[in-house]
Amino acid sequence: MGSEINRRDALKRAMAIGLLAVPATSLLSACASSDGGDSTKKPSSQGTKSADNPLGVNKGTALEAFVFKGGFGDDYIKSAEADYNAKYGITIKHTGTQAIGPKLQPRFASSTPPDFMDNSGADNLDTAALAKTGKLQDLTPLLDAPTIDDPSKKVRDVLIAGTVEQGQFGSKEMYAFNYAFTVYGSFYSNKLFKEKGWTYPQTFSDMLALCKKIKAAGIAPFTYPGKYPYYVHFDLLHQIGKVGGKEALNAIDNLDDGAFKTDAVKEVITYYEELAGQGYFLQGSEGMTHIQMQTAWTQGRAAMVADGSWVENEAAPTMPKDFDLAVGSLIGSGPGDKLPFGTLYAAAGEPFIVAKDGKNPTGGMELLRIMLSKKQTTNFTNAIKSLTCVQGAADGLSLTPGLTSANAALKAAGSNVLNSRLQDWYKKLNNETLGNLTLDLLTGKIKAAEWIDKAQKASDDTKKDSSVPKFKHL
């Protein structure tokens, strides 16, 4: 999923149908190795470091890249690869695919992984499991390397706050570099809302009132991808954080006892029960992929979708030129919420990883350093309609309506930015178990109380499962 959904992830992006068939526990056993997480082992591809080559790439050494070819496509990577090829005298072996996990899990198991990977999409690898079993390169050397545009600054100094933390898994080492900076929320056509005289609401009760008007106009208020129901969690989980505060969201991430039994969870899940009970979801959503969901929405059959800011690029083939894309911030119960209206779910996304057992991990980190250059961030934002994780990289650029709205929402949120790690740390729990519960809730098969009870049990079961690596907010 991007994410997607973790993020996506959301996680997060144009994903192949179906989830990775092999469970994370199999990945753990397949990836177990005797060398553990020794990220200090010097790769054989290491060359001589210099001002022009601060990581010490060995010129002429082959480099293999596997890239998720989803909503962002893979042309932006090819642009960075061209710069790498010219500097280091090779032609990177490039594979663009939507089946990252199925194609690469056997290669990790046999210790023959590619060097550089965009680990995104529904069929992505379990990054947490790979990190815990010592299969990923610690990217700290990249963070401490000088930037291409200003050698007086380290890479870590130019990243948007939270980018480093997004790539950590319960320790100071960084194993995933999330390149895109994604704003999540309920996306809608500003043109449609203006024509109908609708105003994006701030509370659950006001949203329910708006939904009644939207339905009366012959439009479904919401649609969602039933094939990937965790998209709904982009809003749902973070609405829990808005109502109950960051501590409520962190408790869920940490698998704390009773984390799903709070008043904040009850308020949010009861709201979704009400949406379902009133028929405010487009009929047939339960059978849709994310692309089908977006198409129904851009064609005017539904007014809003929970998605990430990549949607402007991903849905471009069906989005009318005058759609005027906008994003709504998280809604909640009202003045009693722990966080104000304007609170946003935003996070670095599109995770790139480098294999420690690859033939050229140093080259993999250097390719990421090239991607962070002004030339490549400008290319990405102009071509993909997405922000990057580099501070101020979009300044001075002509932004699209959706990106303008997302950028404004991010600035308005200030420090009130939420980011659940559930989809990163416990992919199966979020994407499958809770995702299926959410699907049952939205289709009216279960009520809020049952969702809460089963969600808590799933969290408890995950906590007790010794085969699942555990993580905590630092």
Automatic annotation (TrEMBL):
PROSITE patterns: PROKAR_LIPOPROTEIN, TAT. Its main location: other. Keywords: Signal, Transport. It is found in: Cell envelope. It comes from the Bacteria. Gene3D superfamilies: Periplasmic binding protein-like II. SUPFAM superfamilies: Periplasmic binding protein-like II (SSF53850). Residues 42-51 have a biased composition (Polar residues). Belongs to the bacterial solute-binding protein 1 family. This is N-acetylglucosamine/diacetylchitobiose ABC transporter substrate-binding protein. It comes from Streptomyces mauvecolor. The gene is ngcE.
